[in-house]
Amino acid sequence: YESIGIDTVLMSVNDVIAQGAMPVVYTDEVAAGDSKWFQDEKRARDLAKGFYTVCKMVGMALPAGESPSLRYLIKAEPPIKNAPSLSGCVTGIIAPSSRLITGQKLQVGDRIIGVTSSGLHANGISLVIKRALALPEKFLTKLPNDNRLGDEALIPTRSYVALVKALLEAEVHIHTFLPGTGSGVSKVAFDERPLTYRIHTWVEVPPLFRFMRELGVSLKDSLTTFNWGIGYYIFVPDYEVGRTIQIGQQAGYELVEIGQVEEGKRQVIFEPENITISPPGE
Fold this sequence. Notes:
Blueprint: H1 2-16, E1 22-32, H2 41-58, E2 65-66, E3 84-93, E4 111-116, H3 125-133, H4 149-153, H5 161-169, E5 176-179, E6 195-199, H6 207-214, H7 219-223, E7 230-236, H8 241-250, E8 255-263, E9 267-270, E10 275-277
Parallel strand pairs: 1-2, 6-9
Antiparallel strand pairs: 1-3, 4-7, 4-8, 5-7, 6-8, 9-10
InterPro entries: PurM-like_C_dom (IPR010918), PurM-like_C_sf (IPR036676), PurM-like_N (IPR016188), PurM-like_N_sf (IPR036921), PurM_cligase (IPR004733)
EC number: 6.3.3.1
GO molecular function: ATP binding; phosphoribosylamine-glycine ligase activity; phosphoribosylformylglycinamidine cyclo-ligase activity
């Protein structure tokens, strides 16, 4: 549950920093369908440790939280008997105000830089659970890299706070920050304008995602569900590519120029797999 706590906080943190804000306060909510869920002291300590780990890492205060028992609202699906709903709120500060990133500067010719993920990043977990429960060994199933499926699924989400902070402090001209969560690679086409996003290069695909393909998950479903190895996208003008990658690497991240923004229909052309992906929600 420590890893789950880390995931919970970073889902909010990595979204907030996409606006150019630095996180300063986090408040959590752990809601369960039955008050018995809260009686496991080790689980509670591990979850709280996960929250605290991220707060300490990125410099946030953790002043309060809420832990309601919502019997009629939160019901686990068998074979799970009891499970919580984990959520939270991050307050960020944009200072100076000139650091605000809205995405409005996105334009044709922008380069797309991908920053590697650590693994699942809590997105697509329902699909992973469904596939895992159908296996004889379930979450104890060994992957080709000798790790257990459950261990791979619990690799903590990566924080991109240090990366965003370094780029902002260096005054790199950022047109868009985009968290690689929700809708997989199709999220690259987040802007509603008629723009084509051509992906010509990709990174190594994490073992868990490759294993999902072996279990029969289609390529399209994989690319629109999992982050597929990229946890954060940065859109910059051509002249900022080299500086962005250098600063990111100095901050401890792996960055790769993976594509560009072009005129055309709103879609993602994923050349590494020769497939075209529709925008999120289509």
